[in-house]
Protein 1
Amino acid sequence: MAKIFISYTSVDREWAEWIAWHLQDAQHVVEIQAWHFRDGPPVVKQINAALERAQMTIAVLSPGYLASKWCELEWDAALSLEVRGRGHILLPVQIQDGELPPVLDAKARVVLMNLPTDAARERLLQSVDGPKGLSKTQPPLPAPVTNPVAAPPRPPGMLPDVFHIPHERNRNFTGRDELLRDLRQALDSGKPAALVQALHGLGGIGKTQTAVEYAYRHLGDYDTIWWVRAEEPSTRSGDFAALAKALGLPEADAQNQQIAVEAARTWLSRNTKWLLVLDNVPHPDDLDGLLPPQHNGHILITSRDPNWHARATPVKVEVFPRPVSVEFLLRRS
């Protein structure tokens, strides 16, 4: 059993949680910001304390991680502990292709891209437990650790069986981390009023891109993710009927498209672990007869109309502050 700190950037949180879940399942003691850091104490102070407690730091390598100055400080501190003979190991775990700094490129690392779940888990655990991993000597009894993940998630990046998003993920996406965290927290609360979130704001402000980013960040949390082009009645009905087809519902082949739409709504009412995105809804009343009667999954709406209180939790998407706008432009250049 080993004490392991996981260093990652917020964009890769799903990968970090996947790694943490499987390490804890293998009886390792894991410390990860998303699960264990408290509000109040400075994050830097909590990171330093976690590094001191750990026997190993896993650095979750991606282009976003390597571009982060904060993450550089974390892996550099872990490497310093290793070099100084403090009984600490830095283990890079690569989840995306990209050029590595020479000091990380020279280290043995674990590559998890494009592997099925079982193979990725086996490779990860072998790297931690194998000859180059940690001592088998049992450490002192750690403080109790609660694991908020109830079941093994899919490796991040692996698409659900039923999946449709007509947009590629924007690798330059920036500036909405707090909004995305708030959305996740609200949807995870399980409260009926919070299971439908309506992003509203000016045209071109980034509502659709935020919905796209949310869906891609949380691929592993859903068994079904479906995008509905909601600006016209024809596209709304057509995309619901296409969902019925993707789910393999017998009503999908009905000549009357409305039968397929109703079948999809019924399926959503009876099942869980799904995300439905209704993009560019002109007016709340345009969703009459489309939202499932029972909200057992999560619904994300984008609209210019702010008047969603009767149907959803309105979430205003604000204009970027100037520093974030500058960062956004730099990323695009």
Note: The chain is about 40% helix and 15% strand.
Protein 2
Amino acid sequence: MSGMQNLKDMASNVEEDNASLPTALMMPFGRLSVESEEVRKLNINWQSYVKGQMINQEDYAMIAEYDLMGVDERGNIIETKGFQLAKTCLSLLARLSVDQTIRYILVLIDDMITEEKSRVSIFHEFGKRADFNVWGALLKFLNRQDQFIVHQTALIVVKLASWGKVTLPDNDLNYFLTWIKNSLGNYGSDYQHSVAQCLQLLLRHNSYRQAFFKLDGIQRGNAVIRVLADILRESGKEKVTRIIIATLRNLLEKPEERKNDAALSMVQCKLLPEDVEIVYEKLNERVQDLSTFDEYAAERENAQRLNENNFELLKTLTRLMDISTDPIILAVAAHDTGEYVRHYPRGKHVLENLGCKVMVMRMMTHNDASVRKEALLAVQKLMVHNWEYLGKQLKVS
């Protein structure tokens, strides 16, 4: 199956109705995020490792202490002992081999840097001070049999390469980009969307874009235009429409030497001005439905108010989701939960502590389609960390 067909099929999967829960759950976070939730529940017997002299006492003390802490306590120890924590995590990855333990350590690292992007500098600084090859220590896991380990590692590598000032060295970059290119060709993989997310993060950086292009990671013909045109006609999603229009615009404006070729391809696939005009009208209609800035500001204020009185309203929402059987109440509760964390990202930890997140995830298998839909959307909002980027994209459109 060709790469262009893969692209088209992946895009069409996004359009599947949320009622098809297994497929919908894969978008846009996929199996990796679902498995990560299970990994976080693991209880690793660190003492057995130190007794077996597989890890030293210093690393044991660090990981055992960190493992028992709550979110706020972990934040404090990262600030005060971040260098030691990075050393311990990387040391454990080098010394231990049990898949379950490796999974757990990788999720710890990913949670640490995802919670606060600037923390990637802790690992880079450790590598510099200790003369330790952080990239090599991680990239070796791309050859493991356990696919969760492989793809969780890839996501960590991408974040370290994208969120800090230290970039991937050329040799490691070529190796990693080749892995991404080959993995994207593995159509049908449960982790394909995670690979696509890795590529998306890398391609925001010009140096990585150029390297990927040199590896023939991007087809140099205009076959993609026909695929995008087909998706544009079939899609009813505003975000999909916005991205495709922006891509087509770039093809007409950016590469001076290929403007005519791109324009000809758009005409040949019947992507005429009338199509764009229809899209423009639809977008204008959508704009009328969008909240004004004042309404948005009010939503943010309301989200903060949910924290009042020791989270009394959030506790009420959680209780309703636990005891109510009314689909309307459950759908509204799930929606409000998602909006709360969207306007107050730090609130996701509050929801986890209250047990609200578990309630929402449970509703993704509810008999009522509207409840399933709102629960799925809420879970997606709980998992998304980069709302600032999404907001900028909406503003640009």
Note: Residues 113 and 119 are 5 Å apart (CA to CA).
Protein 3
Amino acid sequence: MAEPFRGLHLQGAGQAYATLSAAVGASRDGDVVAVQAGTYVNDFAPITKDVTIVGVGGIANFVATVAPPNGKGILVTQSDVTIQNLSFSGVAVERRGHPL
């Protein structure tokens, strides 16, 4: 029998997780992480599970004001990850010392 859908939500009144990292960490393969619209500063999330991450109620903006610890604003290491209605800014990916 298939497991029921588990929605994981971020910031907002009554939400279970304050950061994308925490929500993804608590998720399982196949889960949907629903991110409330808004701006999230310096929330760097390694995505190590097959999940769908969706901004709801508008765009969820992830903004970096410091260098991310892994050099990436979001690091996806799984093959079945879907990201919808999110934006990322403040991080430049470099190749041979030059921004791409």
Note: The mean pLDDT is 77.
